[in-house]
From TrEMBL:
Domain of life: Bacteria
Listed name of the protein: Ribosomal protein S18 acetylase RimI-like enzyme
Any one GO MF annotation of this record: acyltransferase activity, transferring groups other than amino-acyl groups
Keyword Translocase found: no
InterPro entries on file: Acyl_CoA_acyltransferase, Bact_Acetyltransf, GNAT_dom
Pfam families in the record: Acetyltransf_1
The keyword Magnesium appears for this protein: no
Organism: Tahibacter aquaticus
Annotated CDD domains: NAT_SF
Organism taxonomic ancestry: Bacteria, Pseudomonadati, Pseudomonadota, Gammaproteobacteria, Lysobacterales
Amino acid sequence: MNPATEIRIARIDDAAAVAVLLGELGYPASVEQAAARLVGLQRTACAVTYVASRAGNVCGLATVHSHASLNRDQPSVQLTLLVVSAQARGSGAGKRLVQAAEEWARDCGAQRLVVSTAVHRAGAHAFYETLGYELTGRRYARVL
Ligand SMILES: CC(C)(COP(=O)(O)OP(=O)(O)OC[C@H]1O[C@@H](n2cnc3c(N)ncnc32)[C@H](O)[C@@H]1OP(=O)(O)O)[C@@H](O)C(=O)NCCC(=O)NCCS
């Protein structure tokens, strides 16, 4: 039987596991870098970092950001990072992390949660569509 998945706010002592997950997502970082970024996110009220943990081992990571906008009265909330370790995929950790992000977004007063995902992440596209997310636009980026 799979151990139960716990979703909780990330702590600084998760930095080593967070660094591994960032590497899996394609954004390699040292433990020190991961720790500094966790501290930075902890210091802002408009962002939260969640981890998924099984039997005490961190196996998933998500960040969510909220910002005021002119488009709507409600804040705009975005799921800015989501990854589940390769060994833990397919058993509900990603879905639980998204549910935690949605709950946080509701608590911020948002009426929707937005996520942008790279064109090549076909698995993530299928995952978000399974969870009821609709394709609503394109993302453009330019190296500065
Ligand atoms: C996308 C990702 C976070 C999904 O996490 P996960 O824990 O494997 O997903 P879950 O087990 O919670 O799956 C939830 C649902 O999505 C479906 N799903 C998940 N991955 C899928 C895939 N690749 N193709 C089709 N459906 C998928 C599951 O079947 C499940 O459906 P159900 O609720 O009807 O049973 C994970 O695969 C991952 O980290 N991928 C690499 C990084 C990435 O692409 N991140 C997103 C960047 S925006």
